[in-house]
């Protein structure tokens, strides 16, 4: 226990209804003062924060000293990934760089994180139009055709399509080609060569490899065990 107490760790706190970070080195000291209504995890050296100031556009970014590197100016903002971050203005999303400059204009009603050079995105109505993948110029490299689309991981992305009266999920490569047929009720992104899936036949969980073959048969009622393997 003494060893753990002496470790320097970042701990997420809610203090006086404001968010902050503190450091444990025997006693807890604030390293970022509790000045924010909301604060998210650090990624690529910065964290999204929601300012406690009144106003609509109160999302910005701070560094690990708590200093604003991009001042609050967005209706919503998301973590940086591959040097870009999705932000929203007037109900549309675009992408900014680390200086807060728009590199892809606000034009999407949905835009996820970039991963392996692509980001899931949608132009149009959220209930009528489908999701595709854009490159870092904002151009659709993979056309809008999916009901759900994850970020790419280990060269593949989990996608879901309408199949008759149901929705089935599978995997595509970064060219949009089908790598694993859409035959699962759910499919998580790959991690360490495995993906957790929900079998459409057994209605139970298992894990597959990148050939779509079961490594752990779908015999589990929930995915908790698989997440720990």
Written account of the structure:
The protein is mostly beta strands and 229 residues long. Helices cover 4% and strands 56% of the residues. The protein has a domain at 147-229. The chain has helices spanning 2-6, 224-228, and strands at residues 10-15, 18-24, 28-43, 46-51, 59-62, 68-74, 76-81, 84-89, 92-96, 102-108, 110-111, 119-122, 131-134, 140-146, 148-149, 157-163, 166-172, 178-187, 195-199, 205-208, 214-220. The longest helix has 5 residues, at 2-6.
Keywords, separated by commas or semicolons:
seven-stranded antiparallel β-sheet; 229 residues; 4% helix; globular; 21 strands; six-stranded antiparallel β-sheet; mainly beta; disordered N terminus
Q: Output mean pLDDT.
A: 86
- Unreliably modeled segments: 1-17
- Number of helical stretches of at least 4 residues: 2
Report the biggest beta sheet as strand number plus sense, adding barrel if it closes.
Answer: 7 strands, antiparallel
Roughly what percent helix?
under 10%
Inertia-based shape = globular
Round the Cα radius of gyration to an integer and report it.
21 Å
Q: Tell me the β content.
A: over 45%
**Strand order in the largest sheet:** 15-16-17-18-19-20-21
Task: Give the beta-strand count.
Answer: 21
* Class of secondary structure makeup: mainly beta
Encode the helix/strand succession as letters. Answer: HEEEEEEEEEEEEEEEEEEEEEH
| N- and C-termini, Cα separation | 27 Å
């Amino acid at each position: 226990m003494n060893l753990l107490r002496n470790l320097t760790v970042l701990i997420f706190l809610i203090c006086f209804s404001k968010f902050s970070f503190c450091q444990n080195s025997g006693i807890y000291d604030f390293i970022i003062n509790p000045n924010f209504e909301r604060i998210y995890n650090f990624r690529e050296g910065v964290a999204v924060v929601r300012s406690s100031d009144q106003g609509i556009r109160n999302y910005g970014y701070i560094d690990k000293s708590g200093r604003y590197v991009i001042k609050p100016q967005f209706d919503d903002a998301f973590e940086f990934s591959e040097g870009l971050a999705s932000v929203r203005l007037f109900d549309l999303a675009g992408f900014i760089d680390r200086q807060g400059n728009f590199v892809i204009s606000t034009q999407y009603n949905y835009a996820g994180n970039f991963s392996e050079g692509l980001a899931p995105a949608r132009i149009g109505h959220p209930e009528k139009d489908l999701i595709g993948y854009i490159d870092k110029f904002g151009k659709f490299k993979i056309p809008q055709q999916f009901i759900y689309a994850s970020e790419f991981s280990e060269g593949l992305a989990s996608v879901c399509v309408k199949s008759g009266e149901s929705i089935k999920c599978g995997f595509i490569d970064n060219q949009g080609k089908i790598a694993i047929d859409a035959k699962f009720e759910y499919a998580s992104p790959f991690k360490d060569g495995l993906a957790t899936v929900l079998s459409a036949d057994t209605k139970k969980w298992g894990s597959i490899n990148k050939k779509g073959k079961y490594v752990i048969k779908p015999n589990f009622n929930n995915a908790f065990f698989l997440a720990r393997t």
